Amino acid sequence: MTGPARPTTRRTVLRAALGAAGTGLLAGSAAADARHADRGPEGLVRIATGETDGFYAAFGRLLAAQVTAAYPRLSCEVVNSEGSVANVRLLRARRADVALALSDIAWAAYGGTAPFGRRVPLCAIGRVYENYVQLAVRAEAPLHTVSDLAGRTVSLGAPASGGAVLGDRLLRVAGLTPGTDVQVRHLLMPEAARAMRAGAIDALLVAGGVPLPVLSGLDTRPGIRLLPLSGLLPRLRAGLGPEGAGLEAVTVPAGAYRETPEVSTIGVANLLLCRPGLPSPVAAALTHVLVRRATRLVPAPALGTQFLDARSLISTGAVPLHPGAVAAYRELHG
């Protein structure tokens, strides 16, 4: 299996990519779903996602709906949270069965490195899509690089989000010390939007699909611009070691936010994680849904290419695939 194609000037919409990548797997999906539903697992699956109006939650709601449609005896509960770090903690506390998390956070948890004090037992169902790190400033602000944020106030997202961890690292590799050179706030997306409109913050960082509703709202008032981030990628990867392997340069296409130009930023692979004790039939059912119903798992506004295709689902890096997922992928590939 190969990883995802390198980003282009305007990345192909996921629905088109899936048509090319997963044609063989998607053939006969309706009959296959019905067959699996007859003997499928039953019970409750709690899916930890993210903030209510974010990309994680939108994906989680679609996943829950498609799991129940394919396997009527499986009911799903979407658990909203602050994001990746919170989701790993929910898995560890057995308050969620599966969860979304940025790959660098997932690999840090699996290895027991910061921001986790000890190793968290994890498995993966698949590498489901790519998050775009987006650092927005007011359109008229004299801010053009991350280092220009010196003396400014920036929201890095909810305290237990993967974006907050990555944002802190971005500031540091740009030569800025959070709390000294830059005043950092950790605001939920609606709070960050209100603070940006009020002028209480100069920039906000979010990670998710393109476009993100919180930024689309700000684009009409007061008007925003995205700062380029890909130039910091080599130093960011060097500081992360193996955990940096899930980061790559990606492009936010021109016009994603009203009249914003094309911007090169950082993409982070996103994993669907689970507890190692998740029953294999449930893990297999989730895998079948990811592959067979992939085109129904794309939140409506998404423009950027995601990873939800047959070639890249199994590329979960340091976190091993759940045995039930492995069996399902083998079945799907014949």
UniProtKB/TrEMBL annotation:
Q: Name its species.
A: Streptomyces afghaniensis 772
Report the protein name in the record: 31 kDa immunogenic protein
- Origin superkingdom: Bacteria
Any one Pfam family here would be NMT1_3
Keywords attached to this entry: Signal
Listed PANTHER family: SLL1037 PROTEIN
Can you tell me which residues the record assigns to a coiled coil? none
Xref: SUPFAM superfamilies: Periplasmic binding protein-like II
Q: Which positions carry the signal peptide feature in this UniProt record?
A: 1-32
Read off the InterPro entries from this record.
TAT_signal, TRAP_TAXI
